[in-house]
Amino acid sequence: MEVTFALQKLAAYKPRQTQKSKETFDTGLVLLERGAYAAKDEAGWDAVEKLALAALDQGNTEVADKCIRILSDKFPDSPRVDVLTGIRMEATESPEVALRYYDELLQEDPSRAALWRRKAHVLRQMGKIDRAVEELSAMLDTFYTEVEGWLELTDIYLSCQQYTYALQSLSHALLLAPQNPSYFLQFAETAYLAEDIPLALKMFLQTVDMTDDDDGDIAPSDTIPSGITLRAWFGVKLCTRKLITEPRAASSSASQTPAPTTANLSALDNLSTERLRTAYLDLKHESPPTAEGDLIAAMTPLVK
Fold first, then answer.
1. Closest Cα partner for 20 from 48, 49, 57?
2. Over the stretch 263-272, which tens digit does the pLDDT of each residue have?
3. Minimal CA–CA distance to 191: which of 116, 249, 278?
4. What does the pLDDT look like over 64-120, one tens digit per residue?
5. Which end of the chain is less congested by CB atoms within 10 angstroms, N or C?
6. Is the Cα dihedral 189, 194, 195, 198 positive or negative?
């Protein structure tokens, strides 16, 4: 696994007892007990790292410790092992101990973005949101191109319902990764939460434009929307209905984004309805509800 990507995954790690994690643990444990990881070169060592995380997910610190010892012996002074060791500390030690560990490493080398993010994660778990924001902001002042850091800062602001700050953080992610439609979708949904409906509509449409295959053999209007595209069309529908039923929403854009003309708004509303009905028919194999409110209610769990 490429080192930068691996560090990003470690920086973003959160314990989760999922079926996938259980399967990773079971498969990796067999590999560990047989000592077969060494023969698989880089893939084998990556498997040991994944097993350590899966073991922590399952609450098995004994296996996690064994994995970390193996990796530490093979890769002394490895940044990945340092972060993994910190995650292990987070599992059983007090937050103060984990913070002290991260601070010591950052004093030696403050350029290690993954450690900054783990430190912010610990602070967030402690409920020290202001300090977590300070740590991430300090990191991003130095490592502006750390997209995952901007997304994590966004997530903190969203958890506090500070939508304006969340949009500001997301705007940096858009600048750094302008080809990623999931970031545009998140920006659109955040703008909707911030009640900047014209901006939300603009960004939902941008997401549709990025994900509809204009170069394919089938015209976008003849395709069945799914995934990000479906979620974006759902957002378009929410925005058009709000602008039609609450005209004042068109003139209350904090970003001063202009709303579509009445004719364009009506056309977008009709088109988004058609796209949602098409998706519903494909997913449920039954006729979609005819009433718009019922259609939106029926589609809500399908776009989660």
1. 57
2. 999 999 999 9
3. 249
4. 999 999 999 999 989 999 999 999 999 999 999 999 999 999 999 998 999 999 999
5. C
6. negative
Q: What is the mean pLDDT of the chain?
A: 93
pLDDT digits (tens, 9 = 90+) for 206-255: 999 999 865 555 556 668 999 999 999 999 999 999 999 999 999 999 99
- What is the average per-residue pLDDT within 131-135? 95
Report pLDDT for 39: 65
Model pTM score: 0.87
Q: Report the distance separating Cα 72 and Cα 258, nearest Å.
A: 57
**Helix intervals (H) in 146-304:** 147-159, 163-176, 181-193, 197-211, 227-245, 262-284, 292-299
Q: Within 13 Å and on the Cβ side, how many CA atoms surround 123? A: 22
Three-class secondary structure of residue 291 per DSSP: coil
Q: Indicate the length of the chain as a whole number.
A: 304
Compute CA distances 30 → 36, 42, 58, whole Å: 9, 18, 16
In angstroms, the CA 171 to CA 232 distance is 18
From residue 208, how far is each of 129, 188, 202, 264 by CA, in Å? 34, 11, 10, 16
